[in-house]
Specification:
Elements (H helix, E strand, L loop, with lengths): L1 H56 L8 H16 L3 E6 L4 H9 L24 E8 L2 E3 L13 H11 L3 E2 L11 E3 L6 H6 L6
Antiparallel strand pairs: 1-2, 2-3, 2-5, 4-5
């Protein structure tokens, strides 16, 4: 009888011990699940905040970059010091305007003036201007024109000044010479600009 009592008591104690073990394991697993869930939620919030901040930092431009506009004004002043008058014929362009220009000489009348579609030109990001030399109010598209009579092409003189103040000149390009074109890319490629991988605004 005493044996049965001791056996029953041991059985009950074993059951209680097993139950307490399960409760302890469940508590540990529950705490671990809560911690992991909190970490995941925190990571998602941080990721969303980072994405939101990036999109706010890099808005799509709708005008010339301030430094490009400033340097273009300086270019006009320095050209005037050499008795050369220039006119900015183009600046910021929308993607639609760029596509219309690309169509010229292809699906629309006129000569081909660009190989860049919408989103493929630095004009679309406010980083380029086009200029022309002016004489008596008339634009001179003859790039050999020497209006100040110093034996040098006015266009090339303006291009040299532009490069001195930080522009790249399209007349130096080998594949498609674009004599009116001046740009400042701040070491950002078109691909960088299209994908927002830049910090220039």
């Amino acid at each position: 009888m005493k044996f049965l009592f001791n056996f029953s008591l041991l059985t009950i104690l074993a059951i209680v011990a097993v139950s307490l073990t399960f409760i302890s394991i469940n508590t540990v697993l529950a705490n671990q699940f809560i911690q992991e869930s909190t970490q995941i939620a925190s990571t998602q919030i941080t990721s969303e905040s980072f994405s939101s901040e990036n999109s706010e930092e890099k808005p799509q431009p709708d005008s010339l970059h301030p430094e490009v506009a400033e340097k273009a004004d300086i270019l006009k002043e320095k050209a005037a010091e050499k008795d050369i008058t220039i006119q900015l014929t183009d600046g910021f362009r929308t993607h639609e305007e760029q596509d219309a220009l690309y169509a010229q000489g292809r699906t629309e009348p006129g000569n081909i003036v660009t190989n860049a579609r919408g989103g493929e030109s630095y004009h679309n990001y406010g980083l380029a201007v086009d200029f022309a030399v002016v004489n008596d109010g008339q634009i001179m598209w003859d790039t050999s024109y020497d209006g100040n009579g110093n034996g040098k092409s006015d266009w090339e003189e303006v291009a040299e000044i532009a490069k001195d103040v930080g522009f790249t000149w399209g007349g130096d390009w080998e594949d498609f010479k674009d004599y009116p074109h001046l740009q400042m890319d701040f070491d950002a490629s078109i691909n960088d600009l299209q994908n927002g991988n830049h910090d220039i605004y």
